[in-house]
Amino acid sequence: MAGSREYSVLELDGARLSAITAVVTGSKVEVKRWLTAVRPETVAGDSSKAVGEWIGQEFKRAGLPKGRVVLAVSRGDIVLKQLTLPAGNGVGVKTSDTDIAGMVRLQMVRQLTMSLEGTAIDYAPMLERPAEDGGAARNIIPVLAGAMPADRVAWCRDLAGAAGLTLRRIGLRCFGAAALLAELSQRKDGPLLGVAIGSGSTEFVVVEDGQMVFARAADIPKPTARADIDGFAERVAVEAKRTWMGHKSSRVSPELELVAVLGEGELARRVGERCGEALTRPWETVGTPAIVAMPAHMPESERASAAPLVGLLVESVLGRPTLDFANPRRMPDMAARRRQRVLAAALAAVVLSGVGYVFADRNLGQLKRELTAVQNQEKDLKKSLDDYLLQHARVSHLEQWQAAKVDWVAHVKGLSDELPDPRESQLDELSGRMAATAVYSAGSKPYPHGEWSRKQQAVFEVTGKVEHRQTAIDLRERLLRAGVFRVETVGADMPDRFALGLTTSLAAPQAVGLKGVPESPASKGEAK
Predict the structure, then answer these.
(1) CATH architecture under which domain 408-527 falls
(2) 88, 51, 87, 90: which is closest to 71 by C-alpha?
(3) Other C-beta atoms within 10 Å of 458: how many?
(4) Is 498 within 8 Å of 475 (Cβ atoms)?
């Protein structure tokens, strides 16, 4: 987006359409016009053509240009994963973008349950963090990868076509919110939790050292009456606390330093107060940065809703890596590399044939026949190799999956020892299940010279009743301190009940884990 150009950014949050038009220069974003509208009941919400035609009419009525359009989508529309990829080995060896794209696709294929046909997969490099040992971090490449389902991508393109829009990018609303909080985050020693209030949903982002590391969305529509503000703020505070707990359970992170709410009106202040109380952390409201110029007559409520849309344009000014599901980074085409090698060999054969033709025309026909035979032989060998590698991968995958084991008795014994006194609580249900996945690490060598391994998880769900809320809190803290399980609260928090989801990758509790569970010889062998 170099130079001075005009862009439009739109978001369809439920039935409400929000859009802005801004002029982007090398160091500034100036908002010129904005639009908010509610979709009429006569327009079918599940029809991309009908919704697109309605959006086109609203753009024309508000005088918004359709030439360069960015479509902002919710965090709930995509699958977002933080991945760590192996870096190149050896001094001076740098992993190419093609290699990174291939590793991202391979990792996402393993974790996605949707069909990859038409799915848009993109990634954004993250800043490398120094390791505590001073050197381990140099061997990994952190990226934030996202996948947008094929039907959702097609719906967005059909909508833009029906509206007459030239779609330049499909971006994430949460990335726009994070861009507005990046400068504030860089002035803090720890991460901050950002809250972006939308018309139909509210998004939460964790920003650390100026970059987004976690995002989540909740379907909490913005209140339309002042009497509903307190209830709305309370619901947002609950989801904010749940977001931070989810982030803490998924990775090691410093303590939360600040809660930042986009917007400067009464609603933003009430939300900030309740979130700060729920997380016992300071809070503040955040307006647009100095590089953004907003119209003076634009209402505060409209500014808060449009802030993440403006943030998507601020990303380009700051030069921040981001996701684009309309133009995802291209994944490596291994077949193209093979075709290039074959074509190079064919070119060499043609050149030699031309030289030979000058000296001996009679050899030209023979050379052509030999070239055809070599190409046919290469195709046959390639098909045989592909079939062999496919069967090898299937067998290796099955062997790793069958080797996954969980010592259920040991885990249940450890959990039983951690439960509170029966006079203080009553266990209603304890259930468990195991999920195992075979993992292939290619490294720098082609398949099958890599290494197969497996990842397994045991998942327990524990529900029951308590006399006092503190009993459930103490139980959760004990399980967290044990270091065996990742603990998450299931469902809404209730004063007289507890429902915990426990996840562990250990086949059996270790001696340093849950109390009362001895370390068996089998578990020692597996640990080694």
Answers:
(1) 2-Layer Sandwich (3.30)
(2) 51
(3) 23
(4) yes
